[in-house]
Amino acid sequence: MKKIYKIFICLPILFIPILSCDNDLDLDPVSNISASSFWKTEDDAIGGIYGMYDRFRDVASRSLFLFGEARSQSMKQSIGNDFSTLRVFSNTLDANDAGPSWYNLYQVVNDANLILKYVPDIEFADEGDKSRILAEAYTMRAFCYFVIVKTWGEAILFTEPTEGYDPIKLYKERAQVTDVFNLIKTDIDDALNLFSNNDFTTGRNRWSKPAAYALKGDVYLWTGKVMDGGSSDIETALDALNEVESSDVDLLPDFKRIFDYDNKGNREILFSSNFQQNESASTFMANMYFDQLPSNPLPSAAEVLGVPGGANYWTLTDDSISKFSEDDQRKDATFIELYSLDEETGLYTDFYGCIQVKFDGLVENGARYFLDDVVIYRYADVLLMKAEAQNALGQDPSISMNKIRLRAFGENFDDHVFANGTQAQNDDIILNERLIEFFYEGKRWWDIVRFNKTSDLVPYFRDNPGNDYKLLWPIGLNILSLEPKVIQNPGYQDN
């Protein structure tokens, strides 16, 4: 018997009122209990880990896309005005309108810290189950801090849960970036030591050893290329990515099937944040679909659109569209261009936006629900990170690249075989491949930064070369008002 618990805890910057533990498993009704009587049994520990993943949904449903892709400017305004995220997409962030904060990420960190503090003292029928829960908490904490440090730079480090009110423990200065990465790397190693095997849970919506290795590869690629880790860190990244390939993973032949609601937890997935009808809600991708067609649309447009939903505020730029080849199955499995009638020519040539196909949700009883899982890592990501690491080390990335292209082009593969070139040429091709493969998946901005291409590929930074401080996100005024020891990121102080 498993229970869902709500724990009432107060934090200075987080104000966590509820820890709810929804999961796609069959659970008993909610019990309201105090923190002092929690963390006593194995069921409590299971409730705690479910709660951590439930909280993570709040991060995955919207923030990860805004932090990791919107700023790449690979998308533009479509129909209507999305004023709430306009500054994010245009890279005109300032402290007065900072957009999403680190609030939700620190909530998940606190959930992980609670697990890491209390679960070691709980007796389990199978100690391997305890080790797995602890491994998942370490991995989740590492991932959240990885997002925080890439987004804001220096970060407040909490390795103990926030319980009660103690200003000495609650109010801290931000730690140096190197210290944050030291914690991230230590947490990943601790997790890998605790995972006993390469098994995935049903649905692949919890951290696993292969997913932790993917995270390790991602982290060490970042420190190897963006910081001073150099070849040593990149070699560590490559070793970690190679470990993933010994697990139960594969590329699905049909690219679109990776993301379909009725195909969650397939063999390409390493870790995803789970959403289910009548259980959880998501805003993920709702701003990319059409809620209605304009006047005089292409006659087939209604059939292509199907059931309307969301609001098509953002669509692909012309440059992004041009990157997709017509014989690449990823194009039609990612978006479909829609046109309306040009009254002067009588032709359907007026472009009015792209309907997303990837993450188009569930249609039920005449309504569209955006409940596809948010994919954090999948096997294609491992292959392309592996190609990136190999190229950075002067190795030939052809095998990894051509696995991706064989799936993408099928019978047309011979026209698109990757051939090893110079490191600079390969980098450009790998980065472009990642755009096509992971569009809408919250990767593009981080990729551009990691490849050191912001001034080449992001219009704002190309046009404003003196504003590199905006590579980091501003700390919102609400956070600064609650955190007396936190100082605004450089460049934003006068906003």
Major pleated sheet: 2 strands, parallel
Q: Per DSSP, what share of the residues sits in E-state strands of 2 or more residues?
A: 5-15%
**Total helical elements:** 18
How many extended strands?
10
Helix/strand/pairing category: mainly alpha
The percent of residues in helical segments reads 40-55%
Neighbour order of strands in the largest sheet: 1-2
Q: pLDDT average, as an integer?
A: 89
Please write the string of helix (H) and strand (E) elements.
Answer: EEHEHHHHHHHEHEHHEEEEEHHHHHHH
Radius of gyration: 23 Å
Shape: globular
How far from one another are the termini?
53 Å
Task: Give a written overview of the molecule.
The chain is mainly alpha-helical and 495 residues long. A two-stranded parallel sheet has the order 1-2. The N and C termini lie far apart (53 Å). The longest helix is centred in the first third of the chain and has 27 residues, at 42-68. It is built from 18 helices and ten strands. Helices cover 42% and strands 9% of the residues.
What's the arrangement of secondary structure elements?
Blueprint: E1 4-6, E2 30-32, H1 42-68, E3 75-77, H2 86-90, H3 103-118, H4 127-152, H5 167-170, H6 177-194, H7 209-225, H8 230-244, E4 269-273, H9 301-305, E5 314-316, H10 318-322, H11 329-332, E6 335-342, E7 347-356, E8 362-364, E9 367-369, E10 374-378, H12 379-392, H13 398-409, H14 423-438, H15 444-450, H16 454-457, H17 459-463, H18 477-482
Parallel strand pairs: 1-2
Antiparallel strand pairs: 3-5, 4-10, 6-7, 8-9
